[in-house]
Amino acid sequence: MADKDSNHIADWKNPIVSIGMTTLTFLGGSKHSNHPIEIKASGVGRHVESLMKDSIMYVWENERVKIANKRLVKLVESEKVRAARYS
Predict the structure, then answer these.
(1) How far is residue 7's CA from residue 41's CA, in Å, rounded to a whole number?
(2) Does residue 68 fall inside a structural domain?
């Protein structure tokens, strides 16, 4: 996983089956999180995933070009702000 400047900031483990749990692990010393974050699908399939961190809702969205590419947005006052991208 990379930040907006394409710097590697985390590792992403995604199960093959949609009922599994995704694990997001930030690099040591990261300002983002000092522990792995577990993400569960919000519905059938892996097209809608969300998590809460510090009382802020984050949502993984598929990019239109390729379903394997995702972007993480945080919801700030009903607006989506890009936080990261995974491809």
Answers:
(1) 26
(2) yes
Contact 27, 37 (CB under 8 A): no
Q: Assess if residue 5 is contained within a domain.
A: no
pLDDT digit string, tens, across residues 3-51: 888 888 888 887 776 566 788 888 888 877 888 887 766 655 556 677 7
Whether 60 and 84 have beta carbons less than 8 Å apart is answered as no
- CA distance linking residue 87 with residue 79, whole number of Å: 23
Total domains present in the chain: 1
Largest CA distance in the chain: 35
Q: Is residue 1 assigned to a domain? A: no
Residue range of the domain that includes 15: 10-86
Which residue is listed with tokens 């483990």?
13
